[in-house]
């Protein structure tokens, strides 16, 4: 996957997370999972999105403190 495409996926996931739309989040994650199935020898995009969720949750926690 090109860096540009990976960045676009991450940006869309971030936008979905920020919007709070569970449907949109699930849609982006499903697309990432489908991509991973079709490209098993590339780094996992779904795993990267999960790491992003952890980072975003930590930022939200820090902002609330």
List keywords for this structure.
mainly alpha, 0% strand, 65 residues
Overall residue-averaged pLDDT value = 86
Tell me the Rg in angstroms: 12 Å
How are helices and strands ordered from N to C?
HHH
Largest sheet: none
Approximate shape: elongated
Structural class: mainly alpha
Q: For the terminal residues, how far apart are their CA atoms?
A: 37 Å
Describe this structure in words.
With 65 residues, the chain is mostly helical. The chain has helices at 3-19, 22-38, 45-64. The longest helix has 20 residues, at 45-64. The termini are far apart.
Task: Give the structure's gist in a few sentences.
This protein is mainly α and 65 residues long. It contains 3 helices and no strands.
Write the layout of secondary structure elements.
Elements: H1 3-19, H2 22-38, H3 45-64
Helix pairs in contact: 1-2, 1-3
């Amino acid at each position: 996957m090109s860096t540009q495409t990976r960045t676009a996926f991450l940006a869309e996931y971030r936008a979905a997370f920020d919007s709070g739309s569970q449907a949109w989040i699930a849609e982006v994650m499903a697309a990432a999972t489908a991509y991973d199935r079709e490209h098993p020898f590339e780094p996992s995009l779904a795993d990267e999105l999960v790491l992003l969720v952890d980072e975003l949750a930590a930022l939200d926690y820090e902002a609330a403190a």
